[in-house]
Amino acid sequence: MRFDRFDRIIGLALAVTAIALTALLWRGAGDDARSGRSNPQLEKRLAQQAKSALLQKIYGPVEQLREKGALPEALLKLDEIARQMPGEAHGVMLRGEIQYQLGALNEAITSLSAGVRSEPLYIDAGSPLSRRNLIEEVVRLGMKQVAPQAKSAPENRRLNQALTNLYYLQSRLAGGCE
Amino acid sequence: MRFDRFDRIIGLALAVTAIALTALLWRGAGDDARSGRSNPQLEKRLAQQAKSALLQKIYGPVEQLREKGALPEALLKLDEIARQMPGEAHGVMLRGEIQYQLGALNEAITSLSAGVRSEPLYIDAGSPLSRRNLIEEVVRLGMKQVAPQAKSAPENRRLNQALTNLYYLQSRLAGGCE
Amino acid sequence: MPTLLLLLLVFLPLLAGCDQPGSRPVLNIGFMNCNNEQETLARFRPLTTYLSEQVGVDFRTVPVDTHEFEERFAAGDFALTHTNSLLYVILKENHDLRLLLTESRGNFGPRTAGAIIARKGSGITSLDDLRGKRMVFGPMMAPSGYLAQYDLMLQAGLDPERDLDYYAIPSGSFKHEKVVYGVYFGDYDVAAAPALDLETMTRDGKITADDFEILAQSPLIPYCTFGSAKETDPELVTKVRKALLALTPETTVAIDGEQVKVLKAAWIDGFEDLQDRDYDLVRDMARRTNMPPYQVF
Amino acid sequence: MPTLLLLLLVFLPLLAGCDQPGSRPVLNIGFMNCNNEQETLARFRPLTTYLSEQVGVDFRTVPVDTHEFEERFAAGDFALTHTNSLLYVILKENHDLRLLLTESRGNFGPRTAGAIIARKGSGITSLDDLRGKRMVFGPMMAPSGYLAQYDLMLQAGLDPERDLDYYAIPSGSFKHEKVVYGVYFGDYDVAAAPALDLETMTRDGKITADDFEILAQSPLIPYCTFGSAKETDPELVTKVRKALLALTPETTVAIDGEQVKVLKAAWIDGFEDLQDRDYDLVRDMARRTNMPPYQVF
């Protein structure tokens, strides 16, 4: 129930996507009619494109603000979107990126690892969603700045959580599983 | 600790009162010097006067608003004072009076009985603080309007609390103890 | 359509994990949003949890925007409703909603009032001074933030549509707080402010009694109200009623790893047994101001 | 003086019943009031109760107004302090306060920033446009509501005392919210708003990102800070530190008949181990703006 309005956004998005996909598949049916079955590869790519378009639409204003350097405004816009979709992976990744750009390194690590945990595509070099370069940069800096702090303060739960998150991102960069 | 600022108000008031009383007692000392001891009756009356003056000072703006018929404003002023002195008996009695005048009978009963519980002088016909007439009027109306409702709804905790408060006020009017 | 399923799966984790229905019957309680959904859930989930425990069914807390409440109620979405008094009157008139109990809070218990305020020192001291002024109202369906004040003005011979310079309704959430700040900061000359919001903002120290003139205050009208759909099992309604009346300020419930006081969380002092005829004042106001359920064009 | 006693007895019931000291040592923690005492107590009494349990002494929650904090601290009233970063710097400089831990909250964790905002569409889009405008600041001692913005303006070659039409500080409590509303409702052209308040007001739906232009935002400076008086037993300070760092979002404590989450009640995400040199940014700002502890006349 917490995401009641989000329910509706998603409902709407699903409806739109359903119509678009039906249209696409119907057009595709001409080419594919011989085989008599749908193509799972195609469907997967279509789903990815639909999701990507939806994310673009939702987070477009954030990207625009970020591109013109209005980072505080971009962050506020994210806060606004997060009211309806708290914890949504794309928003969390964007937040991490802006936090990093504004100098909040620990918070960026928290956000980026949360984002990757819920959507591994963000670390996948081949994905259009990929934020791999950013993550590499953050991990490099984090290992230099956060890791020594955390190791010298074993009782500091939050620092050590940041370290755990760093190790997690590092292992995902190296291709490891959770 | 909840009444930290009230501590200070009271501290200040006590200091002022102390100075005033010292002055008075010192003047009185001329008359009373023969007996060589202070007069407990006199001291009690002085304390009552000091308290009464303090209450007058604190609640004066409420009384002024009430007298010119600005009841909602008077109530707001009480809300404002209640921030520093929640539950103070004089404020609670004034609140009850205004609630009654604005037609909130049950709430007036709650306030008036709370006020009398913490300061019995309010029901004492001889006290300068007396609100006995008001209480009589409220009890009369309450017995007519609230009591039958409460009796017909034995499961209604709030109505029956109002009835209990009515009985309490009635017994205090009759001179009974708690 | 596996694609849709895929898309659904992508977002599904976000939708899970609020109310966990068990094997017991699941019933929705529609709660009218005051400021926003998060606030509504934070306020009423403890109450809903308490009711589920007491009544032995799984109630769900459903936050509903005012403007879509009637439609969803008509569609049978809610076994019980928690709305303001005007929405109660509308749902009663159009869909036979049954009165359950009225919520009690603040100086006037189960009733509340609407005030028309101006900034102190503005020179505006009576309703007559409103002519040609800029006014800010609360949301259209708010009994003590719009209806009561609109009615006060009509009764005083003022037509808000003609006699004001203009009037506005603030955007976004926290509209009642905003109308007060709108006058406080001089953007508007006068505002339609619920007495209860003036009370709580004063108690919070946001404003003081000296900041405003109260030009007029409406009679007391019922505050937020629980109702039950006519289809809802009467025995269950009786149990809910009993459970609500049995609540004391000390009653707690376990929720999200905390043990919280139910009434405190919901900002409620208690419940009162008002009668349907107590809402006639609201009905009269709605008739005079041409509001639903009596609106004619 | 029996009369005084009598008077005291009359009011005494009002003063009793908050923290019940046992036979253990009693120590005060001074908490800087943000909005008002009630709010401070509601936020920090669970935390204080938790610390008492963990450390084995009776801590008392003492709300303190900003302007009297230094005097009371100097008088030895507080074993521990919870203040903003500027007050930490002042108490450290003048009374050798020791840094304990920094509170973490919001987008920037243990740090926060001050923003200068204008209403979208006002035509004000850069700091240069501030000349001749009406501005509203937060309270004088607020690092992210006054100090940072004042400093941003000086650094941009603007003197708030000369180059603005005028500037004001709102009265009463909730000053940070009021500066935002002051611009929202057009009473002021620009405001000094803490980034954290913009964040929470946006999350509450009170404002949207589109309502404002952010003309400038300061670098990140430390947020609220726990400190310990130099007289406080170092062993006890270590225990407090450990207890604070051990807090998780799930940690609860029994208080007033409820079992509540300590961090949630206090609006805190956690604690961070900043170093004193992390506060040098605040010191530089205080020097540039001629604020305490470096104020010269």
What does this structure look like?
The complex is a heterotetramer, with two copies of chain A (178 residues) and two copies of chain C (297 residues). The longest helix of chain A has 29 residues, at 4-32. The two termini of chain A are 30 Å apart. In chain A, 76% of the residues lie in helices and 0% in strands. With 178 residues, chain A is mostly helical. Chain A contains seven helices and no strands. Residues 1-21 of chain C have low confidence and may be disordered. The radius of gyration of chain C is 21 Å and the shape is globular. The N and C termini of chain C lie far apart (46 Å). With 297 residues, chain C is an alpha/beta fold. The longest helix of chain C is centred in the N-terminal third of the chain and has 19 residues, at 37-55. In chain C, α2 (37-55) links the parallel β1 and β2. A six-stranded mixed beta sheet of chain C has the order 2-1-3-12-4-15. In chain C, strands 8-7-9-6-10 form a five-stranded mixed beta sheet. Chain A binds chain D through residues 61, 65, 70-73, 75-77, 79-80, 82-83, 95, 99, 102-104, 106-107, 149, 153, 155-159, and chain D through 104, 107-109, 111, 113, 115, 195, 198-199, 202-203, 205, 208-210, 212-214, 217, 219-220, 242, 245-248, 270-273.
